[in-house]
């Protein structure tokens, strides 16, 4: 079996569901944070509808 | 495709293969490379910092340092050159005086009250904090009280993951964040949906024209 990725990460125990516009904002925010020079990793506890993820993430 | 070994204009086979790949493949790679170099550089910088931090925390041997092994595997997955990886490890374990990176986790909210953790490795806390605060406020978020970086000070021989420290500061968080608890979990495999990867919007130009 090939391991796709291995990680030690923070998993939220409870999550926040976001509607579409908020979800877009949140994804954008996380993206910009990740682009920061000193940033290693960004974790957030939002829950986003699959359909939107597929649309934005490709 | 395996690059043919054309050691000083070798046999005819090598020459022919070399020519062919030079024609189509390299020109393609060159174009892609030009566009991606900045992005690639940024990724390597991040990977390198994680590798250095891991090596300093747990030693330079990946077999005895799980965090380092993970970091190396991840770096290899992005095609980071082995040389660069080795250099990052040596820099951290060699005791040479380079920039001292410190791990700090910032906590904040995003749109809709989403809790966000931003793990950073920085040589300048003030700059990083300002940067993150400004990004958050510009995009409908807010920075919570920064963690006072417990644990990371004794980076020398600490066998604990510095991340374990994140929990300590929990009680001091604003109510929204305090309601969220996080657990450490080793994930063996992650499907692609966990984080959408973004790609440049290719059809924007089409729409404009």
Describe the structure.
The complex is a heterodimer of chains A (58) and B (209). Chain A has 58 residues and is an alpha+beta fold. Chain A has helices at residues 20-35, 50-57; strands at residues 7-12, 16-17, 39-44, 46-47. Chain A has a two-stranded parallel sheet with strand order 2-4. The radius of gyration of chain A is 13 Å and the shape is globular. Chain B has 209 residues and is of the alpha+beta class. Chain B contains seven helices and four strands, in the order ααααββαβαβα. In chain B, α2 (25-58) packs antiparallel against α3 (66-77) and α2 runs parallel beside α4. The radius of gyration of chain B is 22 Å and the shape is elongated. The two termini of chain B are 38 Å apart. Classes of the chains: A alpha+beta (58), B alpha+beta (209). At the A-B interface, β1, α1, β3 and α2 of A face α2, α3, β2, α5 and β4 of B.
Cα-based radius of gyration of chain A, to the nearest Å:
13 Å
Shape of chain A: globular
Number of strands of chain B: 4
Gyration radius of chain B (Cα, Å) is: 22 Å
Molecular shape of chain B: elongated
Secondary structure: helix percent of chain B: 40-55%
Largest interface: A-B, 42 and 56 residues
The helix/strand class of chain A is alpha+beta
N/C terminus separation of chain A: 26 Å
Q: How much of the polypeptide of chain A forms β-strand, as a percent range?
A: 25-35%
- Report low-confidence residues of chain A grouped into runs of 5 or more: none
The helix/strand series of chain A, from N terminus to C terminus, equals EEHEEH
Low-confidence stretches of chain B: 1-32, 148-181, 183-209
Strand order of the largest sheet of chain A: 2-4
Based on secondary structure, the structural category of chain B is alpha+beta
Q: Characterize the largest beta sheet of chain B: strand count, sense, and whether it forms a barrel.
A: 3 strands, antiparallel
Biggest sheet features of chain A: 2 strands, parallel
CATH topology of the largest domain in chain B: Alpha-Beta Plaits
Instruction: Tell me the strand order in the biggest sheet of chain B.
Output: 2-1-3
């Amino acid at each position: 079996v090939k391991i796709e990725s291995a990680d030690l990460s923070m998993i939220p125990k409870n999550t926040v569901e976001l509607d579409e516009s908020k979800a877009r904002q949140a994804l954008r925010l996380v993206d910009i944070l990740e682009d920061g020079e000193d940033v290693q990793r960004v974790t957030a506890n939002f829950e986003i509808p699959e359909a939107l993820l597929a649309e934005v993430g490709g | 495709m395996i690059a043919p070994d054309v050691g000083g204009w070798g046999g005819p086979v090598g020459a022919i293969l070399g020519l062919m790949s030079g024609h189509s493949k390299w020109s393609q790679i060159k174009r892609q490379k030009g566009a991606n170099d900045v992005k690639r550089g940024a990724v390597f910088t991040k990977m390198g910092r994680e590798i250095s931090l891991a090596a300093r925390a747990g030693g330079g041997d990946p077999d005895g340092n799980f965090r380092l092994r993970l970091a190396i595997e991840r770096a290899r997955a992005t095609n980071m050159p082995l040389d660069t990886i080795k250099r990052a490890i040596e820099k951290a374990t060699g005791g040479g005086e380079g920039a001292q990176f410190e791990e700090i986790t910032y906590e904040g909210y995003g749109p809709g009250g989403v809790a966000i953790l931003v793990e950073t490795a920085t040589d300048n806390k003030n700059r990083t904090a300002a940067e993150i605060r400004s990004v958050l406020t510009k995009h409908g978020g807010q920075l919570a009280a920064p963690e006072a970086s417990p644990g990371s000070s004794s980076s020398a021989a600490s066998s604990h993951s510095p991340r374990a420290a994140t929990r300590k500061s929990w009680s001091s968080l604003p109510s929204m964040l305090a309601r969220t608890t996080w657990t450490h979990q080793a994930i063996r495999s992650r499907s692609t949906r966990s984080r959408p990867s973004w790609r440049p919007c290719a059809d924007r130009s089409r729409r404009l024209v």
